[in-house]
Amino acid sequence: MMAAERYNAVVIGRGEGGKYLAWHMAQAGRKVAVIERRWIGDSCPNINCLPSKNEIWSAGVAHAVAHAGAYGVATGPVSVDMKTVVARKRAMVESLVAFHLERYESTDAELIMGDARLVAPRTIEVALNDGGKRLLVAEKLFLNLGTHQTIPPIPGLAEAKPLTHIEALELDRLPAHLIVLGGGYVGLELAQAYRRFGSHVTIVDRGRRLLKRENEDVSDEIRRILEAEGIEVLLSAEVEKVEGRSAGSVHANVRTSDGSKVIEGTDILVAAGRTPNTRGVGLEEAGIALTDRGYIKVNDRLETTARDIWAIGECAGSPQFTHASLDDFRVIRDNLGGGDRTTTGRLMPYCMFIDPPLARIGMSEAEARANGTDMRVAKLPMKAVLRTRTTSQAAGFMKALVDLQDRIVGFTMIGSEAGEVMAVAQAAMLGGLSYSVLRDAVLAHPTTAEGLNALFGKVEAR
Question: Binding residues for NAD(+), per the UniProt record (predicted)?
């Protein structure tokens, strides 16, 4: 029988919040272990956020070079070397892994590589990647289990060995025709990137519009932008069967409102939702309850139904963003230090890194109406922002929602540098400022943020 090793804290999983919590507690003199199955530093620097944005940037460079003539710059034929694209991404990942290893060493948090399973309350059995097992007992346990790509139960899809974002970001070849199942953030980002690399791309989505959680004007504008680049978009489309094998020849039998059709491609990418990694890890052995959707049930302090066990990030149902997981860390850290911080009412920003990007914070127009919120809506096309006259990047719009107390309750932007401009609106919202502060602010000319003057100038007076 294995001897139990005792720790003040154990973190299971690879998320942003978990690693920062481990480093924080270890620096405070606690004996801390982090158990990771594969990715050192969590999924964000290895297979998700940063690698995808790295390759998206390469795609943007390819697009800029291909259209350089419009700016008076003469170029020759443009081709993309996917091996170099992937090598650039891998070099970034390697540097980030090295950074994480240095952080583990400098903080004295122990990194254990292996599969973890709860065998009793706060007791973890680890099957080590290099062989053997260890048994850990934690005073406090933090579950940072993450999610994985959902593969819909479509006949033939699993057998076709479809790509997920993980495999798509490792492709060192260019798919001739990429079929993308799903019209959400990941699907749209990768669809545009591969179109810009040179692939023919078809997006298939069950919904009647892309990005179903956004307003219709947002969905319509995003579709217009993608179709203008030559991406085929099929909506209200149900994939009934998949035949063949991705990375060779694959056929998707699709039923639409116009009848059935067969899409013939070389590769198929699944980007149709996420499933929490909460099954098969022994949560029931520790008295940890799950929601109906399989996420760990937590309160607004991220405490689970079991004593001295917390959940962090996507597995706890937090928004599926690295910055949400990082704030989960702050919630737990502050409460462990005697504070009173919760996840209730968090102002959570969203960014989708297509080009031009989409950024949103606060309520959407549809959400505000559903909540019965009295509001004023101001909207400004990006072509009205003088900065776009200098860049010829005029697609998209800004939109703001303002309540009867003159506070900004929502901001959406599709346009160049949308994420950066959104941060300005976010700061005003966090400070409870009147919209008139941004309307009347002296903003540098000609910048994209200068458009906030004109946007909030369109808010109707009470």
Answer: 182-189, 273
